[in-house]
Design a protein that fits this description.
Length: 196
Amino acid sequence: MSKQDHMELLVAEVRNCRKCTLWRSRRNSVPGEGNLNAVVMFIGEAPGHWEDMKGRPFVGAAGNLLNEMLSRTGLSRSEVYIANLLKCRPPENRDPLPMEVETCTPFLDRQIEIIKPKFIVTLGRHSTLYILSKAGFEAVEGITKLRGKVYEVCLFGFKIVVIPMYHPAAALYNIKFRDELEDDFQLLSLEMEKLG
């Protein structure tokens, strides 16, 4: 099967998923979207209000900021892949529950295996801790200490560079985080240049 076939199968599974209780309150599941041959994959936490309405990741205010940061790096949404830990919106945008993460992340794991990105940019604490722990790190520090660094890891049998960043939603409310998010996108740009 082609990458496209694998991803279409996964998307169909996500759209019909009832493995946790979040399906009851969702309008739309949000499987993820983008280039299946992307060099860079962005992983957020969970869909918010607008994502739930439209069934697409990062389409609200945080998505607009992500688009702005991408363009500064010379990337567009059509070149990257964007997904979340959870595929359905938690009520009131609360943090993902451990059981929800455990239930939903096999979908994300399969997406990573299908795309095989060279870079994973984790947006926020939850996706950062999940990806680093999956790679064998005991990441007990918060996102403030983990961001701004580059982690070379092996996931699913291939090497990936992980760059943790603040979630764009946090940067909307704190100018300091926005400045640091800009710095982190510059770091991503530099790391991509190294790859050629």
